[in-house]
Specification:
Elements (H helix, E strand, L loop, with lengths): L9 E4 L1 E4 L2 E9 L16 H30 L1 H14 L2 H14 L3 H17 L4 H22 L13 E5 L4 H6 L5 E6 L7 H8 L4 E3 L4 H4 L5 E5 L4 E4 L3 H22 L15 E6 L5 H6 L5 E5 L1 H7 L5 H14 L4 E5 L25 H7 L1 H14 L4 E6 L5 H20 L9 E6 L2 H5 L1 H7 L2 E4 L1 H9 L17 H16 L4 E3 L7 H10 L3 E4 L4 H9 L3 H12 L4 H16 L4
Helix pairs in contact: 1-2, 1-5, 2-5, 3-4, 4-5, 12-14, 14-15, 17-19, 20-22, 20-23
The structure holds phosphoenolpyruvate and magnesium ion.
Length: about 575
Amino acid sequence: MSKNNSSEEVILDGIAASAGVAHGRAVVYLQKQLDVPCYDIPEAKIDAELGRFEQAILETRSEITKIRDTIANSLGEGEARIFDAHLLVLEDNALLDEVSSELRSTQKNIEFCFNQVSQRYIAFFRSMEDEYLRERVSDIRDVSRRLLHNLIGMQSVNLGQLATESIIISEDISPSDAADLDRNKLLGFVTDAGGKTSHSVIMARSLRIPAVVGTHDATKRIVSGDNILVDGYEGIIVINPSESRLFKYGKLASERRKRDATFNSFIAEPAQTEDGGSIRLMANIEGIQEMEQVKAMHAEGVGLFRTEGIFLRHHGYPPESVQYKEYRAVVEAAEKDPVIIRTLDVGGDKLIGDENVKEDNSFMGFRAIRFCLSNVDIFKTQLRAILRASAHGNVKIMYPMISGLEELKAANLILGEVKQELLDKGMAFDQLIEVGAMVEVPSAAIIVDLLAAETDFLSIGTNDLIQYLIAVDRLNDEVAHLYDPAHPAVLRTMKAIIDGGNAVGTPVSICGEIAGDPIYAGILLGMGADSLSLTPGLLPEVKYFIRHIKKSEAEALVEEVMRIGDSAEIVRKLEAFRKQALGNLA
Ligand code: PEP
Ligand code: MG
């Protein structure tokens, strides 16, 4: 029964994370830690315990078969194959026999025995040399989790298969949960934790799903079945919205549609200022599924292909053939436009497979290029797939989270080895492929002259750069108010990076979330950025804005704001500039 069953409106506040309004039924998703009980089983109950195990296997098998069929129908047999591997785990007699001997010898409950055996299997496969066998770890882990859920009798919402159109309310949504989300039925999401640049929010924004995050306690105040409205523009949630409020939001939606139609009417025009200045507008994507929109938005290529999406969707490290197919599809869809493929940025809030585990200070930890330089096989597999895709179009490689020249050189050395291996095998690739680095760690910003001299291009990742410069975790809602792109230290650092690149003719792009916000797009143009790479859905507004300003004015604005020390004052100036350009569309 709903906690909020009176018809009174209740308003909760959070952080506006992904624009739009959603109205519908709430589904509360709690990621309960699996707490596996341990207790003694008397001899006489051993058969009954085995019966429970068989029942749980049947339930698990029928769940997996259902998911498998749905995926095969919607995404094709190739994508569904992973679930065949899951079914095989359930048919593995060696594993099942070991569970029953564990039960007989220890006389502990079946979920405990099963968990013990599956953990032993995971440890065994993880230590294998063979890449294929190592990949079985994630299959066993996924199946074990599902089976344990069925044994312990926990009700869990399946984010990949929502029964009806729903708004998900969760403590947090991890990028791997987000990769599984049922895009047809998900109306919006609300989380207790999180900041504006968490990777789940970035995914929501690219799917144009309204989201409010950082509410602290939405999961405690909303229950499944509540009628709620999520306002992703203002960052509020209304439980039991009144008729008059729904009417007001209906009007807002129709105004937004008109505004979007005006922006869209300029979409095929060049991104050029009134005085002839120009900036390249490119797209941030996570996979081939976004390329149709990239083309529709007239993006001039892909400025950031976050390849983690492929890994998260596969719940592990997909083989070269799978990666190659996906990269090649994107490159071919882009036609002759550039596609900047970023090598794996695993870690932080993006956890994949067993080589990569949750750490205390995960954003400062074993992440991105650090992970790849220590897992050379995974890195080489990806580089081979990217290089092979480069034979089919205009591909560039970009390394994430470079913190010093040594890392850049080490990555290039491995790239050189992979190129040589392909040459030896007579395989085609672009031998002059351009290689760039993200500038998102303060140390990289400080040595931008050195990095610019060693790279073909640089791209500023402001999502990370801001968190590292201001020491404010991008996921932590308690400090989200300090996450400030208009902080003078952020503006000075961005300007120094752009100046450093321009001094030696190395183009500098911006691919963090601020590139999609007109209040920052103007000064980035004024600072001399070569391109902006943004979520495709935000491109029409940014292009309209660029077409309604003068580059000289943007440069003057940069000069003005660089002299201001107070970030609120800076935001007022930037807002005023935006309003002047957008007029009544602001
Ligand atoms: C960034 O840090 O700004 C960026 C684009 O990379 P990501 O958001 O994937 O960390
Ligand atoms: Mg980053």
